[in-house]
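Lab channel / #folding
Pinned by the channel admin:
"Please post every new chain as: sequence first, then the structure tokens as a reply. Keep commentary short and put observations after the output so the thread stays searchable."

First post following the new format, from NK:
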Amino acid sequence: MAQDGTGRPWVTLQSIAAIPLKIPFSSGYKVSRMVTPVQQKTAGRWSRGDVARVHLEVEAQADMTWVVVDDPIPAGSTVLGRGLGGDSTLLAQGETKRGTVWPAFEERTFEAFRAYYRYVPKGRFIVEYTVRLNNPGTFHLPATHVEAMYAPEMLGEYPNEDWKVQP
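Reply from TO:
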């Protein structure tokens, strides 16, 4: 970079690299994730057909608009509570949502749970969802990601452990 002239320039430099996340990262949002069994064939071991509750805790360091919480699920799993055939609303009962946030929209897709918030005030909030594990295998999940959509420098990530599901 070189400057010609007498002005006082400024530069913003951003570097992006595909480096595996080993520890939680916080730049405006601190996120943690905990998985507990709702129904489990064998205690302490995940099997096909088991149902898990995913607990996400997010701490915002500043008020922000349009924030998304994006949490991946194992391939072939089903996020319950969509109201579609074969979906158990009974198993999804008891999901906790705490804090002064209300989702504008929730996506419960085949690849992730996503919640979009119009406004997130400074402080802590909790969101939970329920997932049925349909396929056996070892699943290497990407990081759980929280980001202010119009201020992408405000984000938080939490590395997920491999999820092993027995047949």
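NK: Residues 89-92 form the longest helix (4 residues).
TO: also worth noting, Helices lie at 89-92.
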